[in-house]
Amino acid sequence: MSDQLVNRQRIRILVVIDEFTRELVALRAARSFTASDVVRVLDEVRREAGRAPKRLRSDNGPEFIADELGAWRQANGVEGLFSRPGKPVDNAICESNNGRIRAEFLNTTLFNSLPDVAEKAEHFRLHFNQQRRHSAINNMTPAAYAAQHGLSH
After folding, report:
1. Residue 37: CB partners within 8 Å, gap ≥ 6?
2. pTM of the predicted model over 0.85
3. What is the domain partition of the chain in residue ranges?
4. For residue 45, what are the contacts with CB-CB under 8 A and spacing of at least 6?
5. Helix or strand holding residue 38 (H, E)
């Protein structure tokens, strides 16, 4: 996703969501993201969760199709699932959540700097996981749904 600071500098937002629990696992901002950046975030997620995901669904952006991310997936036994260009239905859960993140966070918040985005994003992520109920998971919060299934991030 992309947005901008109050000074109109463009920023990119990396969203990592668990499709089963709907937990917003990571929400990071930077001027841009390389495959190395994505690998670093996924390593953080893997360490926090104690395991790598079974599958990684993404679009075909250069940061997701790069050899470095492919090597990370192979080293961690993670299957790569790519949406077809122009077919957002291939990534429906992510697209739906991106819409919520856009409407409830990005469109309603002003950002002064990247550290400001990071602070506000983490606050939103915690609210999204621990307080916001989701109809797709029996009107539970993602954290409660994950706990019900013996999972946590």
Report:
1. 14, 30, 63
2. yes
3. 2-148
4. 16, 25, 26, 53, 153
5. helix 35-49
pLDDT tens track for 44-100 = 999 988 888 899 988 888 888 889 999 999 999 999 988 877 777 777 888 888 999
Residue pair 26/149 in contact by the 8 Å Cβ criterion: no
Q: Give the tokens for residue 151.
A: 């999972």
Q: Are 71 and 45 in contact (CB under 8 A)?
A: no
Contact 109, 35 (CB under 8 A): no
Structure tokens at 133: 């109920």
Q: What dotted CATH number matches 2-148?
A: 3.30.420.10
Where do we find the tokens 């429906």? 92
User: Do 153 and 142 form a contact (C-beta atoms < 8 A)?
Assistant: no
Residues recorded for the chain: 153
Evaluate whether 141 touches 134 at the Cβ level (below 8 Å). Answer: yes
